[in-house]
Amino acid sequence: MNTNLLTVRSPAGTTRAPRLDPRTKILLVLLVSMVVTGPDGLRFVLPGLLLAAGLALWEGARRRALVLCVAVATMCVLGWLLPLWWPNPLTAIVSLTCTYLIRFTVAIGVGMHLVATTSPTELNAALRAARAPRAISVTMAVMLRFFPVVAAEAAAVRDALRLRGLTGVGAFLCHPVLSLERFTVPMIASSLRAGEDLAASAILRGLGSHRRPTALHPPRFGRPDLVWALLTAGLATAAIVLPTPLT
């Protein structure tokens, strides 16, 4: 295969994988989420895992791909092999839980590629190009920026608690309610403040304007989108034709 389809040259002289069109990534997330959570969704779990891991490796996120594979392998062992080795009501409950969690893990793995490689501006431009309602485009653009901010705030609160010696298993077991209060109260305040800042930033950027803004880099489908669409179609066909071990 021609490598020009999968790599581009950056200004620094290094090669990197070109990003997919945000509309393609949204369609992949919706497609995988619908099929893996459907009535016969276990048939599409392994192809969905291959798609999620492939997107992570193509992006260069090897750690994410490894974590996804380890998580799915662990759920396969707990959900399908453990009840055979040690049949009892507890393992039956664990098996039933894993049969549902494994589906959401695969869908989240594909969605993480969308979150990691798409900026709110790109997402808003793609949704406007797809003629999506303004309420949906603005909401998704703000949510895409909100979750990383909340994650950063949670890490800051956790570091502050660690510096004061208020974290640890012993502190949680001795005072579970107080430990949760010490974490959730600052998080609620930080989330409200972050929401207000993001709302003000959205207004300044004109996300709520009725006028159609001009995108500096208009979204358009390219050859990488076609490659991944064909790969997704091939994985879906293999999932339908070939037998699946997850039954």
TrEMBL record:
A single GO cellular-component term on record: plasma membrane
Entry-linked CDD domains: EcfT
Cellular compartments annotated: Membrane
Ranges annotated as spanning the membrane: 41-58, 65-86, 92-115, 135-157
Membrane-topology descriptor: Multi-pass membrane protein
Pfam families: CbiQ
Highest taxon, organism lineage: Bacteria
Keyword terms, alphabetized: Cell membrane, Membrane, Transmembrane, Transmembrane helix
InterPro entries to which the protein is assigned, alphabetical: ABC/ECF_trnsptr_transmembrane, ECF_transporter_component
Repressor as UniProt keyword: no
PANTHER family: SLL0384 PROTEIN
Protein name: Energy-coupling factor transporter transmembrane protein EcfT
Species classification: Bacteria, Bacillati, Actinomycetota, Actinomycetes, Micromonosporales
